[in-house]
Sequence to fold (257 residues):
Amino acid sequence: MIFDTHAHYDDEKFDEDRQELLASMVPSGIGRIVNIGCDIQSSDESADLADRYDFIYAAVGVHPSDTDQLNEESFAHIRELTGRNKVVAVGEIGLDYYWEKDEEKKYHQRYWFRRQIDLAREVGLPIVIHSRQAAQDTMDIAKEERIGDIGGVVHCYSYSAEQAKEYLKMGLYLGIGGVLTYKNARVLKEVVQMAPLQSLVLETDCPYLTPEPNRGKRNSSLNIPYVVEAISQIKGVSTEQVEAVTWDNAMRLYRMK
Fold:
């Protein structure tokens, strides 16, 4: 069975067929999914999805690009959500400088990243880290906040093998998805080659980042076998071993039994 550690089935792109699609998951070999919050609304919806489906769990948190939603009141609501049944992580949280060039807003991202890390430490949950074009600041905060003591995953890992080694030393997992199948993903392939299989978890980030050969279409957990195959070829192990080891990794990451 396959464990999709990062999905967004609350997204409007699934509004027309969400129920039918999710009903197909377990029969298709997708055993567990963690639906990830990226703002206040999607955190609420993720917790609700987890209540409705036995195989879905939730993470709650605010994506760096949406931290303008955060104040003490909304932050208290996220804290309250961490107590919901089947909420297994705080995320996705972190830094995203891809669109953001304003230094004051970057500071705002860093502030709420630290606050949400503190929340995870307080409630005893791992974190799901989003980091885009913010490699050094993310690493600096990770070390300063001792996130290795909290545990978590660097979602959609996109940096160098050298940085990956630093996260692995902290005991964090690396989230690997459809990007690995792209022809221009040379650096990510190097990361997967370098990292122990025991440090990798599978993810989709669906409806985004669809793997080849379906790139350009809406993504779903049903596409993860393409990622499994890519890891299998890079690591020189069977697809069955990739599925089994990454399942165990995800269970440890989210502290499930």
Residues 103-123 form the longest helix (21 residues). The CA atoms of residues 180 and 189 lie 6 Å apart.
